[in-house]
Every structure is written in C-alpha cells, then in structure tokens.
Amino acid sequence: MTSSSYYIYMEKEIIAPYYTIMNYDNNRSFFPVVIVIAACLFVVQACESEESEQPLGKTCLTLSAGLQNAPVDDPGEAYNYKEFSDLPTPPLPPEQALERFELEEGFRIELVAHEPMLTDPVAMDIDADGRLWVIDMPSYLPEHDRSEAETIPLQQVPESRVVILEDTNGDGKMNSFRVFVEDLKMPRAIKVLNDGILVGEPPNAWFIQDTNGDGKGDSREVVYRTYGDPMVDNVQNMPNNFLWGMDNWIHSSHDNVESLRRIDGEWHTRNFKRLGQWGMNQDDWGRLYSATNTSPLQTHLVPHGYSERHPGFEVSNGINVNIARKAPMWPAHPTGVNRGYRVGQVVREDGTLKTATATTAPVIYRGDQFGEKYRGNAFTPEPAGNLIKRYILEADPAEIEAEADFAYEGREFLTSTDERFRPINMYNAPDGSIYVVDMYRGLFETALSLTDHLREYAVEQGLHKPVGEFGRIWRIVREDRDIDYETPEFSMLTPSEVVEYLQHENGQLRDQAQQVLVQCSPPEVVSRLEEMTAAGDAKADWTRLHALWTLEGFDRSVYGQGELSRTALEALNDPHPRVRASGIRILERSMDRNSSEIFPRLEELAEKEQAAYVRLQLLASLGESDTGRALRLIASLLDEHADSPYFREMALSGAYQREEQLAGILRREYNWGSERGEAHAQLLNQLSEAGEQRSGTDLSHLTQAQRERYEKGRPLYRTCMACHGKNGEGQSGVGARLSGSKWVQEDPEALVRIVLQGFSGRAEERGEEMTSVMPGHDYLSNEDLAAILTYIRNAWDNKASPIDPETVREVREETRDKSGTWSPDELRDVIK
C-alpha cells in the first residue's frame, strides 16, 4: 500500500470489536485492512504493548546490526615463530607466553585474540553487541637505529587499521575478523557509536560510517581538526583514548584537547583541562582517571569543565592530581628500561624496575566477576616492567579528595617474564572480566626519547626486531567464580529490555545501556527512566545516577527541558551525593529561565548540604548563571569555605564580568577585608584587578550587541592561549603575535579564512620566524568564531571592526571546497 491517509471506522455488529483501517491511495480507491483487536474499545493505541517494540538494531543501532550479515575477512597466515627463535629474547607463541604469567592467587589470564588478527594494537572499544573494535599502529618505530627526524616519515605511512573482532561461538576467543578501515596514520582513539565510529588520528577526529552494509568504512567526515597539534611529531604528546563519560561527553587524555558530543546530528566541543597522558577511565560515579609515565593514577578532584571560563582566572587546584605512589614496582625479572643506567633510582642493583617509568592507561574495575572486594580498585599497567599493579582506591563520593595505595607490598597483581609483553591499555569487559591490550613488541619507546642505553640493550637481547607483526588481547578472570562469555547483544533487544541493564552489577553494561539509550532516545522508556531516578533507596545508587544522565542525554524533542529540570530538581533530594551533584549540574541550563522555581531549592540545599563535593558542584554551577541571586549564593558558599583553594578558584572562575559585584557583596554582607585574613584580602584584590583590567579596554566603537559578542569571545580565547599567549603576544616559532597584527585588524574575511582552514608558511605579516602550521578550526560554530575574532580584533592594543556570524557563514560557504591551509600569497590575493 502507498498512501499517507487512513480512515478508521468501527464494525459495531461484532461482539469482539475490531477496526477496519481504510487506505486511501492516490487513485481514490480503497483497500481495506482489517485488524481484529480484542478488548480494545474505540482507540487503536490502547492495544499497543511491549510486543510492538522493535529491536534497536532495526531502528537505531544500524552499525552493529548491519555487521550481522556483513562478510568477514581472512586475517592471513599463521605466524612462523621459528623464524626468530634464535634471538636471545624471541617472540613467543601465545600458548608459551601464557606460561610466563604469574597472577594473584585465584586469578588466571586467557587469550582472546592474537596475530595475525592484530599488529601492534594500541586501543579499542566494545560495541553494543560485544564486538571488539581495535586500532593498531604497525608503523610505530619501524627501525631502532634511526634519528627522530628519520623516523617521523617512516611512521607516517597510512597502514594503521580499525579491525573488528567477534566471538561467534561463545568460547571466549575471537574467531571472526573484519577490517573496517586500513589506511590510517598513527591513530590512537576510537569510540563506536550507533551509526559509525569516531577515530582520533591526530590532528583530526574522524566520524567514519559504513553506508552500504558491507562492513567497511566508506564515508569519512572530519568533526574536530585539533585532536593534537599537527606540528608535534612525538606520539607521546598526542591526545588518546576516547571515553564516553557519565555526563554524555566524550573525553580524551593529554593536553589541549576538548571534549566532544553529538547533539541533533551536530558535533559540539567543550573545554576540558588536561588529565593524564595515557588512557581515560571512570568509576561508578563518573569521576575520571588517567595516568602519566611516572604517575600511575591521576584524577580531577574538582568538577571538570569549569577551568577556562574566566580569561583571568583558571582552576588549577584539584586538576590532574596524582593520587598514587609511583614506587616501588615489583617486576618478576630484570628488564630493559630507558633510563636503566640510573641504578638505585630507576632500577635496582639486580636490574629490576624500581619505580614507575612508563605507566599507561589504568582501569577502574567495575565488573561483577571478580567479587565485591575488587570493585572500585584501580589496575595500572607498567609495560616497561611487564606488569600490572593493583591499587586500593579510596574515593568517597561525598568528598573532594581521593587517594590510592598499593594492594600489596613486595609483589604485583600480574607479572610476566616475557619481555615482549607490553600491556598498554585495559578495559572493563561485558562478561565482568578485564581486557588487556598487549602491543607485544620489544622496543616501544619513541625515537625522540630512546636512550643509547636502551637501544644497546634491545640489540643485545634481540628486542629490536621484528616490529609491527604482533599483538594480543588477554582476559583476566577470577577462577572460582562463573563467567559467561555470551554477553548481551543490545541491537537484538527492545528499548524496554535495554533500560533494565541500568540496574546491572556490571558497570560496563550499565555504561553501554546508557550510551545506547542516549543515542536512540526511545520515548517508550521515558516513564521507566523517571521511575528509576525517583526510586530513592529502592534502586542502587548507580542505577539512579545512570537513569538521570540518560534522560539528560535524550533528544529534547523526546524529553523536554522542562521535564528534565523537574527531574533534576527531584534529584536534589536523593540520598546519594553524586546524584545530588548531577542534579545541580543538569539544572545549569534552566537556572536563569526558571529561577523562581530553581533558586529556592538551591538556597535550601546550600543551607543543609553536608557533602563537600556537592557544595563545590553547587558553587561551580552557580557560576553559569547571570542572576544576582546566584552571585549572592556564590558569596555565601565562598564565605563558608574561604580557606579552601578549591572553593576560592571555583568562585573566581564563575565571577566573569561580575568581579566587582562579588567583591562588594563579600565586603558588605560578610565583612570581608584585610582583618579577615590573608586569603580573604588576596581574593578581593584578584577580583578588583580583574574588573579594572577589563574596564581599561576601549570598546566605544562597538554597539551593545557587539560588546556582548566581544565578552563572549574572551573566555573562548583561552583555548588559543597555548600558542598565541594570554595577551596576544605569541610564542616564537609556535604561535603568531596577535596584538598589533595587520592580518588580525585589517580585512576581516582574510582573518576568517585563516581560522577556518588554517595557515602555513613564512610571512612578514605573521613573523618571519614562524614555521608552525596554524590548524583550521572549521568545527567551531559561526557564533563562536565571530565572538573569538571580535575579541582578538579589539583586545590588547587592537582596535578594529567586529565580525558577525553572518560574515563567518558567508566565508565558510565560499571556501567550503578549499583543501589544505592558506599560503601567504593566497591570503594577499584575498586582501587585494
């Protein structure tokens, strides 16, 4: 039938009522379709039931569902390990490598996948049906005796892949292999979404889709162009590891990278202060964790996302804090270490690793297979020592502080005497275990950092070859507890079935359920989610938290802002502090629009709340409101916690353009002054100086709307400071000077072009010493770009016309086919 018009009438003669739905086609003829509906009176919708729900694979999870019928690939011939068996430290077949492990009593390690399916794997993600999507890096450090300059072009060979591994028979081993993408250059982050994958390949983040159902990524879209500095060639200094956080933003570790989120089909960014160097993970309450080479476990103690909202103040206390000791390490054997010549400091007299030197991506265990004793523990790999260390994490959700300590002294959770075992990433698994990504190679230090000591050791032990040929994924299992390798396939489930996984003991399945529901936004589970958030002690704390954030992530056409605000207000009464804190954060969008309903509740909470973290979140969120009522509440909280650097910095960051008003409230209503103490006087001085600095800028040539655009651009400019300086002074060889720049102040369309597509090449206008590439920022909205450019054209010593969003839109449209960055000559032609 083809029609858009239907007519319904009741057959009154029938005892069991039924309806005839008449289809009216374009030829004006009728085709009756009789539907017998027992016990339904007059309303067709009354007969709907859960049985009418479609599996999500038919409506939303198209990528995962499409793979069910996609062809598989041949991974290639099995490796001939005898070829290098004469090396002092040869690569071992997986079954022999298994014999080299020693774990805490009661645990075992199992092989999940190995070469030739994998070659130098570095990161992975797990899709809605339990498949592993793995990115590899076979071109990494291809030769041991080359300089950094010689190594870089050898590494930039497009041979990295995204491979899909699947266990089709439920035995716990991956037996199905597909290559989704095979021409990437040194990727290091992946996130599987409902209709494609997000891949971090510096300097770009790509959204890659399979448009014809053949299991191959055939469509690519750049969604973020500054995923790493294109001028930095050291792979250790690049962002990595996408994590979908509890807050529905996708976060990465390392520096100068923003969080990403797709809303209504468009990608958005949000400032995220650096956390760690390797990996990104979260606990049951959404606190994020990472690691750096010599810092095995790092976290943001304070709420994140507020660090750069004030151009004069930043939140630094409680950001990127190391909470675990780095020494001692207890490997099972001596190993080659980059600075192993530092005997007594880095290594012991017997050559065993003494302190953390290469710790990478930690995992916070959230599964249900190890037992309650291990829930919330941190497991951090140390590939230089061929070991995994276990930490007991003390992180009370009500408090700001957190710390971690060794689970044991004199031994490790896992060690190996196979020096090619290189655990570099770990993940909670849907079966409740932990997956370990093993790069399985001899040398893994970068060419830039590789010392002669380690190079000579590697050659002596035969660890310098082969390269780019091995890779393994292992599973750690507790032996005395059951494990079921056949895990849920969410694409085969209805929304009503998926939503119940928010109650599961396994945090990985809860995360997966939240992500699936957020991306699909099925209206039929809204009432169930509301029931979960309002259940109080009747539901597990984490269930209420997940349900709340799931509703926050729903499409607003399905769950409106008003409905979300009411649910968030109810969450302020929740018994768990992180649910209350989340309710506060979710209310930020509605504070000013619905202040009469929201602020009495926030004021009541400020008076009664005992949890330090909730009070700090309240202070942070109040800084997002422009109302005087919010400012007075900020002053009240600040007065109570003036001795805390966390509260002082958060208050300053939220006082943008209201510094003098806040200082006045503190003086008048709370008697702040020098007699209150040094901390009080210092904060008042900071507020006064910030207000005076802004008032000294001449904006008389701008209208009120243009001044508002200028002020909007001021905090947005913070992301530009790393290269161009706090006051537009630039950095030699890195970022051009903006203060006094002709190209900044003259032709606005030329400036828009530079920011949209980027710039490269020496030019008098940017400073002849500048050799770096200015990356394009076309992922920013027209409004944000106009605000930033209006700001830099009128800040410091600059004074020029503003730039409006329409100008940005027109230039964007005019240059949409531009490939590559602008050269000096091209820009000069534009200016002419």
TrEMBL record:
**Database matches in Gene3D superfamilies:** Cytochrome c-like domain (1.10.760.10), Leucine-rich Repeat Variant (1.25.10.10), TolB, C-terminal domain (2.120.10.30)
Record flagged with keyword Phosphoprotein: no
Question: What are the GO MF terms of this UniProt record?
Answer: electron transfer activity; heme binding; metal ion binding
- Transmembrane stretches in the record are 29-46
Which keywords are on file for this protein?
Heme, Iron, Membrane, Metal-binding, Transmembrane, Transmembrane helix
Domain named Cytochrome c: residues:
708-796
Asked if the record carries the keyword Membrane, the reply is: yes
Q: Which Pfam families match?
A: Cytochrom_C, DUF7133
Q: Where is this region: Disordered?
A: 807-832
Q: What protein am I looking at?
A: Putative membrane-bound dehydrogenase domain-containing protein
Origin species, per record, is Fodinibius roseus
